[in-house]
């Protein structure tokens, strides 16, 4: 009898709910090192043929993705692959690679790398931002060629019905590209609760455990695997007994397959009558359905950089306008808030330029936009044009002071003047600031005086206040949402908004966790934005609490000396005030050192 491979259990962090039994589908990290080896003269023809075959396979694959992209992710995604198809079929480019193989007598992988590096270097020197952005297309195409040469067959991704994607570090753009209808779950070595891949997984209802550290290298495609987000665990080669235990659970429809639970809609009030708005955070068209399904009050945060997920900065004004109009239509009367591209963070890092040493502190978000004037102006024009037919607002990411807001406002004024000259219809667009770095909190009163609204991004606020990388599992224990310094920052920002008479929306992941949402209400928030699937739980919790009790609990938290103490208070106070809402398992658990 064949011996059963021993079961391996690995602990991580369950970031998107669900339990799934499936088969590993390893995502080959094509970016890994490319080696050089010599090819004998008599084998050169075979080598060039190997390259030609890979190029043909890559372009066939890409055409298929392009055709499917329209259906899965929305039409605005389909065209972005055209440039890549053209490149993959460009005889000059393919010819250069073949020539290098023959002239240098080297393997195809090495030739692709050398020719690709040369081309991207040329592009990086172009002055025009738009054209320079095309360098990312070259990188993408080279990557596809290398993947095709490695023999990996990404087509399988779409065939396996029970595929569990296992990877080291899945970029959100790569996740956006997968056939999400067939993927059943996700397991990655890196990542944290607020990494964009985790946010996206929750958005599309894909069960996920991240931060598994050393799991990827132990897997093979086809291995049996259980992903259990409730236990923060994955199990490789589960034993018969383990499987039998899980079969019962997974026999129930998973959160993902369950028929849509149509949540209550209409006004949400706490027990003491405070009206709370719940808005939607969205990234991809695949999440659009949830906005209506869960009764969101418009779109509180559209992370527009996901429009660029696959093709870098080449999205034209017209293409952007179409996308923003679609978002405005979806949001209806309550309107949508478009965040200007938050580029340069972990969600887009590979596409735009050489990796920075410290991207979170680098040329990110509004800094990127101010440095790349033409990219920002193109986006502003597209939003202004789309606002002619729908209700849109703009929010500026990573603001640190008033001057940044003023510079963008000046640009908007100039773009409006041009549109008027051109006789193009545009709409008025209120401007808000993301409050997500400590400098913005400290300047909150001054920033509030020059914007129409605030959006509190608690994900980055925790990251920057505590100096803890939000997607590094090594420091996940230090990512303490309930740190008193974070609560102070939120409190000060909300007060500044109130005093200035402007609305403040809390749109970080904190808002989507019921216990934390209660604290936000205690801090004075009345407007929360979150991934739509989180709304039913937050809604039913907030409808059952009273804001006065929440305030008393929060005031006590604000006197604490550290995160452990706040977590302890939250456990005891929420658990005793509303035991039916907060069983112990739903509250922050004591750390082993406590
Ligand atoms: C945040 O920082 O909390 C936020 C909402 O933006 P993102 O998660 O996209 O950085
Ligand atoms: Mg942010």
Would you write up a description of this structure?
The chain has 594 residues and is α/β, with parallel strands linked by helices. The protein has four domains: 8-29 and 155-250, Glucose Oxidase, domain 1; 41-150, Orthogonal Bundle (Enzyme I, Chain A, domain 2); 298-429, Alpha-Beta Barrel (TIM Barrel); 434-594, Alpha-Beta Barrel (TIM Barrel), CATH 3.20.20.60. It is 46% helix and 13% strand. It is built from 25 helices and 17 strands. The strands form two sheets. Strands 9, 10, 11, 12, 13, 14, 15, 16 and 17 form a nine-stranded mixed sheet that branches. Strands 1-8-7-3-4-5-6-2 form an eight-stranded mixed sheet. A hairpin with a 5-residue loop joins strand 9 and strand 10 (275-282). Helix 3 crosses helix 7, helix 16 (373-386) packs across helix 17 (402-422) and helix 20 crosses helix 21 (484-500). The protein is globular, with a radius of gyration of 25 Å. The protein starts with 7 loop residues before the first strand and ends in a 17-residue tail after the last helix. Residues 301, 303, 342, 436, 457-460, 507-508 line the site of phosphoenolpyruvate. Magnesium ion (MG) is lined by residues 436, 457, 459-460.
> What is the CATH-assigned architecture of the largest domain?
Alpha-Beta Barrel
Distinct bound molecules: phosphoenolpyruvate, magnesium ion
Q: From the 3D structure, determine the CATH topology of the largest domain.
A: TIM Barrel
Fraction of helical residues: 40-55%
């Amino acid at each position: 009898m064949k011996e059963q491979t021993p079961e391996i259990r690995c602990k991580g962090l369950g970031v998107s709910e669900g339990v799934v039994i499936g088969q590993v589908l390893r995502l080959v990290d094509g970016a890994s090192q490319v080696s050089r080896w010599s090819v004998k003269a008599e084998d050169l023809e075979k080598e060039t043929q190997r390259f030609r075959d890979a190029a043909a396979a890559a372009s066939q694959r890409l055409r298929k993705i392009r055709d499917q992209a329209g259906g899965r992710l929305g039409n605005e995604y389909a065209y972005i692959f055209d440039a890549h198809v053209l490149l993959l079929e460009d005889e000059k480019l393919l010819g250069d690679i073949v020539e290098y193989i023959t002239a240098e007598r080297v393997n195809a992988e090495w030739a692709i790398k050398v020719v690709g590096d040369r081309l991207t270097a040329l592009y990086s020197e172009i002055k025009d931002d738009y054209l320079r952005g095309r360098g990312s297309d070259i990188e993408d195409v080279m990557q596809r060629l290398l993947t095709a040469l490695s023999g990996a067959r990404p087509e399988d991704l779409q065939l396996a019905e029970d595929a569990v994607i296992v990877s080291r570090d899945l970029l959100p753009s790569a996740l956006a590209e997968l056939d999400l209808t067939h993927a059943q779950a996700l397991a990655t070595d890196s990542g944290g609760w607020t990494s964009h891949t985790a946010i996206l997984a929750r958005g599309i209802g894909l069960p996920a455990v991240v931060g598994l550290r050393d799991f990827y290298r132990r897997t093979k495609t086809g291995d049996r695997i259980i992903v259990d987000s409730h236990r923060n665990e994955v199990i490789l080669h589960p034993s018969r007994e383990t499987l039998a235990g899980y079969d019962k659970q997974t026999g129930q429809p998973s959160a993902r397959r369950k028929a849509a639970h149509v949540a209550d809609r209409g006004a949400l009030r706490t027990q003491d009558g405070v009206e709370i708005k719940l808005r939607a955070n969205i990234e991809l068209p695949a999440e659009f359905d949830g906005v209506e399904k869960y009764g969101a009050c418009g779109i509180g945060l559209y992370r527009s950089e996901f429009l660029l997920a696959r093709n870098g900065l080449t999205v034209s004004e017209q293409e952007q306008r179409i996308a923003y109009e679609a978002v405005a239509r979806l949001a209806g009367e309550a309107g949508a808030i478009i965040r200007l591209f938050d580029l340069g963070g972990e969600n887009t890092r590979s596409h735009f330029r050489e990796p920075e040493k410290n991207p979170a502190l680098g040329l990110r978000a509004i800094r990127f936009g101010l440095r790349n004037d033409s990219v920002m102006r193109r986006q502003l024009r597209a939003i202004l044009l789309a606002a002619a037919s729908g209700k849109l607002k703009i929010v500026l990411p990573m603001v640190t002071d008033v001057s940044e807001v003023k510079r963008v406002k000046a640009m908007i004024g100039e773009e409006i003047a041009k549109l008027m000259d051109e006789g193009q219809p545009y709409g008025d667009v209120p401007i808000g600031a993301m409050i997500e770095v400590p400098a913005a909190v400290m300047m909150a009163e001054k920033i509030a005086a020059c914007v129409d609204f605030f959006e509190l991004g608690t994900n980055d606020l925790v990251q920057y206040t505590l100096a803890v990388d939000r997607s590094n599992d090594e420091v996940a224990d230090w990512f303490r949402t309930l740190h008193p310094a974070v609560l102070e920052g939120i409190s000060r920002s909300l007060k500044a908004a109130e005093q200035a008479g402007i609305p403040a929306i809390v749109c970080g992941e904190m808002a989507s966790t019921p216990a934390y949402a209660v604290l936000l209400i205690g801090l004075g928030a009345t407007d929360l934005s979150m991934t739509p699937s989180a709304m039913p739980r937050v809604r039913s919790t907030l409808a059952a609490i009273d804001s006065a009790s929440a305030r008393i609990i929060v005031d006590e938290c604000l006197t604490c000396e550290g995160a452990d103490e706040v977590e302890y208070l939250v456990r005891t106070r929420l658990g005793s005030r509303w035991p039916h809402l907060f069983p112990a398992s739903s509250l922050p658990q004591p750390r082993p050192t406590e």
